[in-house]
Amino acid sequence: MKNSSLFIICCLLTFAASAQGINLKQVGKANQYMNVQFAEKDNNGHLYTIDFSNGLNKTNLATGEMSKINDVNYKNTEFLFYYRFKLYSMDKDGSLTEIDPVSGQWTLRSGISAWSEINRPVVVGSFLYAAENGSFYRYGGLDPKSRTQIGGADFYSMGRLIKNDTSLYSMISDGSLYRINLRTGEWNRMGGRKSKDWKFAIAAELMNNKIYTIETNGALYETSLPGGERKLIDTNKLEKGRVLISVSGKLYAITTDGYLYEIEFTN
To answer: What angle do CA 72, 84, 42 make, to 5 degrees?
Structure first.
């Protein structure tokens, strides 16, 4: 009996030593991120957001200071992305505008309807990718006609896109996770042939070759790559979390009550 008790205690201590948790460190002021509609980042420690006021804001994540980039109303923005040191707003009318994140200068790059058929633009590394009528394309720049098709017509429903500088993943509504081969267009399923472990994910981000997800119950999970093994990190600290974004090797969450937190891993 004594040996059994010692074995159980050793197991519990081993589990406790290996368990990982999180602390939430508030960044900036309270309620500054209410109803964020778009969130984007650069490689220099800045977060860009468009909220319910339709203004474009820039946050220095080192200091928490938020500032408005310009006085333009972005109510017609359909997609926001960062590409080659500039921000771009692809609008509902198919036009494309360029925003200098430092000066705030606004420049029209493409007129009405130029990008109207485009869906889900995403930047991976130095290339812009987007879908159109079920096909997937890599663009040579910001000319909508200068593009190369990748793969077949497998991109009608692209799900939630998750990316870093080299890879692109899709998390679809049935809970499946795929890696999209950016050379061939092939969809490679993660976590086993029938795995649907990501069905309850409401936010996802890729950082340090791991995908982090917030579930509907507020739990934070970590998925290791390329195997797709999931690990519970925390059970409920992010119950109000709705957006995950990684910047300069740190993971951040935006909550429904307008807070921005840096997620600090405790082990």
So the answer is: 70
